[in-house]
Model the fold of this input.
Amino acid sequence: IDDLEEQFVRFLDEAHRLKQKYQSQITLLVGAETEHITELDLTRLQSILDQHQGRIEFLVGSIHHVNAVPIDFDEATFRRALEAFPPDLASEMSEEDSRMSALLDSYLDSQFLLMQRFHPEIIGPLDLCRLYRPKLEFRTFPGALAKLQRNVQYACGYGALFELNAAAFRKGWDSAYPGRDVLQVSRQ
Done:
């Protein structure tokens, strides 16, 4: 971790050097993308922000892990993240849908916690959690839909922007992140 922090400080130094050098030609903002894998990540992020006050001018709040397992690496790893959730045997949903519902809830709860603690100016893909299930619609998971609506309302409440990301096309989607149903929630 120390090496990563040293690299980060070098990045900040270089970004601010370039910002100063080209200030008459461009406006350069220096930001960082966050992650919430475990509570330790949020604690370390707070420490970094405290140590470098004013040098990090914006945050992109992103979630790429659920239960400490990457959800956007490949299908097999996504499947491992999905299978980390036991199915709700009392649910009328299929075992797969039950696990997916739990994964969506976990993802959206992590995203909400990140927003509450840090108020990132930009929210990373709202629906990266369904990267390998692009046809999934939140309306079929009412609990997750309510959490998505909560997150969007909270982010809008403090003035956050939402990332639009065309990488989804490269990954087989027929739309950018966020998907159409999430855009509908964002527009309400």
In short: Residues 27 and 75 are 39 Å apart (CA to CA). Strands lie at 31-33, 58-61, 65-66, 69-70, 122-123, 161-162. DSSP finds seven helices and six strands in the chain. Residues 95-118 form the longest helix (24 residues).
